[in-house]
Design a protein that fits this description.
By secondary structure, chain A is mostly helical. Helix content of chain A is 68%, strand content 0%. Chain A contains eight helices and no strands. In chain A, helix 1 packs parallel to helix 4. The longest helix of chain A has 29 residues, at 3-31. Chains B and C meet through helix 1, helix 2 and helix 4 of B and helix 2, helix 5 and helix 6 of C.
Chain lengths: 236, 236, 236, 236
């Protein structure tokens, strides 16, 4: 499989993933009549199902990482060659941004709008650490199974659970973190991961948002690096 | 497997699929007490589950396309012979119409009633394009897996997500598009794809409906043709 | 595998299935605060999941029919020997009755109580015909797949859908039909199949219930026989 | 695989399981606006999905028992050596306690808080017996399938159903029983298994809680022992 074809698969797959995450969040919130639990149930169902479908679909082409953290973990374990990593990351982030734009357009929202949802604090950081740790464990553990279909179900199921069991409804996916800052809807996240479900919304200037995004990505980067070191070191 | 048996499988399978789509929509709306999100959750759950069951069931007989777009894509890639295509399309459309009638009868609705739900505009067209593009990608990608059971789960999961992440709750299935114009219930769609969930309902004459249906099918046809060219050309 | 062990598996499996069907119906209705859609969603989720678990569990022992209609269809196609059929049917019905009693006891209901839910008419009969036809198609079609795990998922998914797309929330399972007449809770059915969700409840004498049950089982028996003839004859 | 690595897998897996159970219970209750059914649906979805993901992930390393009852059943059938059993049980209980603490911290609750939820009586004991019997049957039956992926789905599906069909939303897992006594949130259980959904809450002293926990574990221990004897003896 040529690198061009693999990058196309990563880009399209991540775009469809973000379209599903953001689009189902918009539709869920619009139809839920004010019940955040119902909106998040719809969002969760659509996200988990989309992951199963997309990982089965693009797995045979590019490995279907659709996630910079998975790409880095795979390269750390000697799966993907390091020189393919920048292309993977670029395709994922570009795809994620396109996917958010597509979702916003499908529902008549502005193509891009800076999210005003926001959450802070150590509980959120712990949530993201737990979510990322769990996701990398799932990806790593399933690679031991001699089954091309186990990991798609495991990852879809894991994210289904993580939407509910982490306080940030974290995605453990930096491409999603960036892209969700670009929609001011249910799944939008000011500088990051929370769905903002139930969060108090307040107006902020663009500058502040970019700073928060920068800080959050730095925190995610350090956390991911530590995690990768731990995961690779422990061999789990 | 003889052609007659395969066409019977396509017809029965598509009829059961439409019975599930339309029937669960009626039951969901009746029991949901006005919550569109709850009705659509039930409709989604039943549709996705029916797809998994029916694709596993009829896959070994006819390939379980249950969808003219899938049949055309399969023939374009050299799977199904072109001379079997008209029979497949006819069986799918006839099955879809029978399935809608069965659902209407099971719930005491008129056998056929022109849908008065309607949605228009570029956001809807984008939704249908995205939904069809995604579905054909899923079908194409899963054909690379050496597993007869991966595609049924992937397609069921994809449609589960697409009900929520597209503004039209599109089916990416022309047979469904035709058939859903024939029920004036939750999943009914005037000339096409939307569930009409939450859509303003207004009375229209039959002539206008047929025109809308004609226009929509033309748009779907052109879109599908472009998609097929792109998919086949890119080899994804 | 000895016949005794297989009959034990059929009995325990059917008992657990009915405990799941009836128990989750009670719990769903108690917690749903009057929303029938929410109660049926919980009932559907639990029933579909229980079927997946139980068919995977008891499949390797007895084939996990857990359903007289499946046993008869299997014998008709030369799978199960006809002299094992009475034992299978007896174990299934006995298991189903025990399962209802267990569910009633777990939730502090009377061990047995004649159901007062009732539905009638041609729409109900059509629903049961469609449901049974679909289930036997699923079981038959999946037997062509060389996978011991496909049928459990397909049957679980099919019943998940059928709870919503048939007007009777039919089980297509005579053992369930008998047993559900013995609980006067959410899934209870006077002489048969409906969950009675949303149905007007009225008091009836035991005699009338038994007559209705008799009539319903006769109708189901004739319908199943016709179906089996059609299915076996057509070879689908 | 060294014992150290297997115990690490059991500990991490059980911690993530408890984080998912308790965390999704907190989030579900917070977002459900008073609907216990909606909160339990979210809790069920997250728990079942987490089980599928974690059993697929840690199965290839340690067998992914994540449950003292499963470890004891496995040792009884000659799977795990008896001298590894104490390590497994210790890792599971320690992991469960850590997981509850992580969930409490993620949602800003006290690290540990004795649960004030409580349920009693023979109906509860029957529920736990049925739940444990079913779980051990599922684990045992699936070991006959030549598939490394069947048991994770079967167990996840079984617990999904058991949350709804038992009056105690029992986990059939002593490590969970212990750990859930340490959170005073939706899934918290005074000395044990119930989610306490809908249960009247009343203040109790710590001493009384410990006694109840002790009594409940004794009952569970005796019940599990009897079950194991029956299961091993009958060979099901």
């Amino acid at each position: 499989m040529t690198l061009g074809r693999r990058l196309t698969a990563e880009g399209i797959g991540t775009a469809l993933l973000l379209a599903a995450v953001v689009g189902s969040g918009i539709q869920g919130e619009r139809l839920a009549g004010g019940s955040v639990a119902l909106a998040l149930l719809a969002n969760t169902l659509a996200t988990g199902a989309a992951l199963v479908a997309l990982l089965l679909t693009f797995g045979p082409i590019s490995g279907a990482h659709l996630n910079p953290a998975v790409t880095l973990a795979d390269a750390s374990r000697g799966g993907l060659g390091w020189r393919d990593v920048p292309g993977y990351l670029g395709a994922q982030i570009a795809g994620a941004v396109v996917g958010v734009a597509v979702a916003n357009l499908m529902f008549g929202e502005p193509v891009f709008a800076l999210s005003r949802h926001e959450r802070h604090g150590p509980a959120q950081l712990l949530s993201e650490f737990v979510a990322t740790f769990g996701l990398l464990s799932v990806v790593s553990g399933c690679s031991r199974l001699r089954s091309a279909t186990a990991a798609p179900f495991a990852v879809g199921a894991y994210i289904t659970a993580a939407y509910w069991f982490t306080a940030s409804t974290s995605f453990a996916n930096p491409a999603v973190t960036v892209a969700r800052a670009l929609t001011d809807t249910f799944t939008g996240a000011r500088g990051g991961s929370p769905t903002g479900a139930g969060a108090p919304v307040r107006e902020t200037g663009g500058e502040e948002v970019r700073m928060t995004l920068g800080r959050r990505l730095t925190a995610e980067g350090i956390g991911t690096a530590l995690l990768l070191a731990a995961v690779v070191g422990s061999g789990i």
